[in-house]
Amino acid sequence: MDKEEIKTVIIDAFKDVQLGSGVSLKQAEAIDSYCEGVSERDFMNLPRNEITDNWQKIDMATLEELPYLAHLDDKGFRYYIPAFMISVLEDYDHISMRVICTLMSLCPKKDQYFESRIKFYSIFNDAQNKAIACFLTFLPEAVELAVSEDREVEKSLVNYWEKFVPEK
């Protein structure tokens, strides 16, 4: 499967997803700084200046500037993860926080947070789970991963996503 085929699978699986009441990237940035200098009202208004109804319109610069996947809630994660996955396919850079955060967010570690991460992923429907599994399965063929990220992708599949890999 090549990059374009993987992108099509992701787009099809997430095509109608909107942010809704989920945490936005600017809100996640505020959370990352402990909401310092951001009132509750300002925090709630942050998404008004963001694209929240069509993740495909979010540009690469925004994803690069705001790679705060760790601070999203499940709805925010479901909305933004397809844009981040496609960005990795389009512009893989092993030192980019956009890339690092994308891959780390899809790798549930077998630690004390494992069950909560798995519960977090439960928001995905079957097509979305399969799209993520497809992305992780074929990413090493689509881009030349750094050794550490190749291992991260492999762990992601073993720890959770391989059960969603479509039969060949």
Q: Which stretches are poorly predicted, pLDDT < 50 over at least 5 residues?
A: none
Q: Which range best describes the helical content: under 10%, 10-25%, 25-40%, 40-55%, 55-70% or over 70%?
A: 55-70%
- Largest β sheet strand count, sense and barrel closure: none
Indicate the mean pLDDT.
94
Specify the number of helices. Answer: 9
Report the count of strand segments. Answer: 0
How would you spell out the order of helices and strands? Answer: HHHHHHHHH
General shape: globular
What structural category characterises the helix and strand content? mainly alpha
- The portion of residues forming beta strands comes to under 5%
N-end to C-end Cα span: 11 Å
**Radius of gyration using CA atoms only:** 15 Å
What would you note in describing this structure?
There is one protein chain. By secondary structure, the chain is mainly alpha-helical. 57% of the residues lie in helices and 0% in strands. The protein is built from nine helices and no strands. It is globular.
